[in-house]
Write a structure and sequence with these properties.
By secondary structure, the chain is of the alpha+beta class. It has one domain: Alpha-Beta Complex (tt1808, chain A), CATH 3.90.1570. 23% of the residues lie in helices and 27% in strands. The chain has four helices and eleven strands; from the N terminus they run αββαββββαββαβββ. The strands form three sheets. A six-stranded mixed beta sheet has the order 3-6-8-9-10-11, with helices on both faces. Strands 5-4-7 form a three-stranded mixed beta sheet. The chain has a two-stranded antiparallel sheet with strand order 1-2. It is globular, with a radius of gyration of 16 Å.
Length: 194
């Protein structure tokens, strides 16, 4: 039994997951995900190659994010690890220090502009739970690479904290078609993702 005073970072740190697995707290539930498979990794690598030349603050999976001020709140505290994230700025040393000491290493999501998820064995988490979490967190754009449907979905205009969080705008692009991200980001080529 978990003490009600246990913070989400402490709760997640207490889970004995195999090395390389992600442990997140998404929309009120603990999600433990295996490492990505080869096709998943191939898409992420391709995304990185396309983004790095023009985007300054690209962050790969492994770094976790929470809502500033809500990092320790178990009632609303989404703690997510996107496959890929684009920030509007780098974190200050003070923010890094605060995250390390106060939030168990989880960084505030308010500097993120775009998050990417590539579906895998936990497709429902990416298509439903993280859609709600990222919308609730106010992350401006959520790009979902849905391998099952061979589609890239770009969600924009987040709800922020709301009874039914999510996004107001949705654009879908089938694999093979160029994906138009919001300015100033590059057009993504998906021809090799089939």
């Amino acid at each position: 039994m978990v003490d009600e005073r246990t913070s989400i970072p402490e709760l997640l740190d207490g889970i004995d997951a195999p090395e390389g697995w992600r442990v997140e707290y998404v929309e009120g539930g603990i999600v433990v995900s295996p490492p990505p498979g080869p096709f998943h990794e191939s898409i992420l690598t391709n995304l990185l190659y396309q983004l790095i030349p023009t985007v300054k603050f690209v962050r790969q999976a492994g770094r976790g994010y929470c809502m500033r001020g809500d990092c320790a709140d178990r009632a609303i505290g989404d703690h997510v690890i996107p496959d890929l994230a684009i920030g509007t700025r780098d974190f200050t040393p003070a923010e890094m220090e605060e995250a390390r000491h106060t939030h168990g290493g989880w960084l505030p999501a308010d500097s993120l502009d775009v998050v990417f998820e590539v579906t895998s064995s936990n497709r429902k988490t990416d298509t439903r739970d993280k859609y709600a979490a990222y919308g609730r967190m106010g992350i401006p754009h959520y790009v979902l690479v849905d391998r099952a449907k061979h589609t890239v979905i770009v969600y924009s205009d987040p709800s922020g904290p709301a009874p039914q969080p999510g996004y107001a705008t949705t654009q879908s692009f089938p694999f093979g078609q160029d994906v138009h991200l919001p300015a100033p980001y590059p057009v993504l080529r998906t021809t090799t993702w089939n």
